[in-house]
Amino acid sequence: MQDTFLDELTQAKSPVFCFLVNGIKLEGSIVGYDQFSIMLASNRDGATSQLIMKSAISTIVPKTASTATAKSY
Predict the structure, then answer these.
(1) d(Cα 63, Cα 18) in Å, to the nearest integer?
(2) How far apart are the first and last CA of the chain?
(3) CA dihedral 10, 15, 20, 24 (to 10 degrees)
(4) Given this model, what pLDDT does residue 40 score?
């Protein structure tokens, strides 16, 4: 389920909000991921990327409602 969601966001280069467990909100596009981490590229500056450990992520929300279609997993 997680891989399907992340694959769709990565392929569409959709902007997302990434909320961390400590309350910080990050914004960008997911450019890659693996079993333990996600690479988030800044929407403001494509050259700036952050490696985020999945254990630090609370929620990932597509920025626009049309980005993610409702699906049943």
Answers:
(1) 10
(2) 6
(3) 150
(4) 96
Tokens found for residue 16: 């997302």
Domains annotated for the chain, with CATH where assigned, are 2-62 (2.30.30.100)
CB 9 within 8 A of CB 38: no
Is the distance from CB of 10 to CB of 60 less than 8 angstroms?
Answer: no
Cβ atoms 29, 39 nearer than 8 A: no
Asked whether residue 43 carries a pLDDT value surpassing 80, the answer given is no
Share of the chain above pLDDT 90, in %: 71
Query: In terms of pTM, does the model score above 0.70?
Result: yes
